[in-house]
Amino acid sequence: SIAQWSYNPNAVDGPQNWKEDCSTGKRQSPIDIETAKTVMDKELGTFTLVNYNKTLNKTFRATNNGHALEMGFPGRAYNVSGGGLNGVYTTVQFHFHWGANNTVGSEHIVNGKEYAAELHFVSFNTKYANLGEAVDKPDGLAVLGLLIEVGEHNNSAFSFLEVANKLVEPFSIVNDVPAFTFEHLLPDDKTKFFRYNGSLTTPTCLESVTWTVFNDHVFISQYQMNLLRRLKKNGTLAEFGNYRPVQPLNNRIVKSSFP
Ligand code: SG4
Ligand code: ZN
Fold it and tell me: pLDDT truncated to tens, each residue of the chain (259 aa)?
């Protein structure tokens, strides 16, 4: 069973005291991406995102899992390959990380700068049978991450966030969210990104993630940001947000797809 954990920096179950790979691992996430130290890799290429631009005849499942707002999809409908990934990964969910105010909330930070939120598309390597098989393998998962800033306008691609009004209580589920397209959730320019080998950012912080963080950011409105902040987890989600502090890079190299 999974031990209790929280994002409260002062609590015994807070990020400084997370167990297992969270404390012993050497390829932990998130990290501070120091752009001056990244190494360009021409082999990274462009992504192939299958069905990300389609509205499939399906429904999604929105959950407040106590740690994040998560949108789950039917497996093997949306696929990711290319972009220097080895093999085909199938997307099973995306979720958000955010802060209590707009100066914090992203997990990855760039040259020390934090952003208001971060969106993660989680896909598992189709060489494994399912997410559970893939989650502890070094090449098991690929997460596409993007940094979110608060701007002037509602971003229509994010209008599904209204579902947060039904997810205020922990462990709430809305099963019948009509499918929508993903392509405008991602930055327009998907050719510029950072790549490194890391981990899940929640306990047990398994070291199975090939990370992509897009260079370009996405904007949502203050109203849309506040929808995320409505979610509760015994109060702590609203108080501290749900972002893990950055972890040591150790001997890793962060690659970039662009000069
Ligand atoms: C969030 O808590 C998601 O809701 C989790 O999804 C996810 O765990 C976790 O973040 C870690 O993912 O991209 N931030 S991350 O490294 O995807 C997994 C579920 O709990 C295994 C299903
Ligand atoms: Zn995440």
Answer: 357 899 999 999 999 999 999 999 999 999 999 999 999 999 999 999 999 999 999 999 999 998 999 999 988 999 999 999 999 999 999 999 999 999 999 999 999 999 999 999 999 999 999 999 999 999 999 999 999 999 999 999 999 999 999 999 989 999 999 999 999 999 999 999 999 999 999 999 999 999 999 999 999 999 999 999 988 865 566 678 999 999 999 999 999 999 9
What ligand is nearest to the CA atom of residue 209?
A: 1
Backbone angles phi, psi at 6, to 5 degrees: -145, 175
Give the whole-angstrom CA distance, residue 144 versus residue 91.
10
Catalytic residues: 67
Whether ipTM tops 0.95, in short, is: yes
- Tell me, using a 6 A CB cutoff, whether residue 135 lines ligand 1: yes
Q: Cβ(98)–Cβ(86) under 8 Å?
A: no
Q: Which pair of structure tokens corresponds to residue 153?
A: 């306008």
How far, in Å, is the centroid of ligand 1 from the Cα of 94?
Answer: 8
Considering every ligand atom shown, identify the ligand nearest to the alpha carbon of residue 70 and give its number: 1
Closest atom of ligand 1 to 63 CA is 4
- Give the alpha-carbon dihedral of 251, 254, 255, 257, to 10 degrees: 180
CB atoms within 10 A of CB 84: 17
Ligand 1 contacts CB of residue 202 (under 6 A): yes
Residue 233 near ligand 1, beta carbon < 6 Å: no
Whether the model clears a pTM of 0.80, i.e. scores above it, the answer is: yes
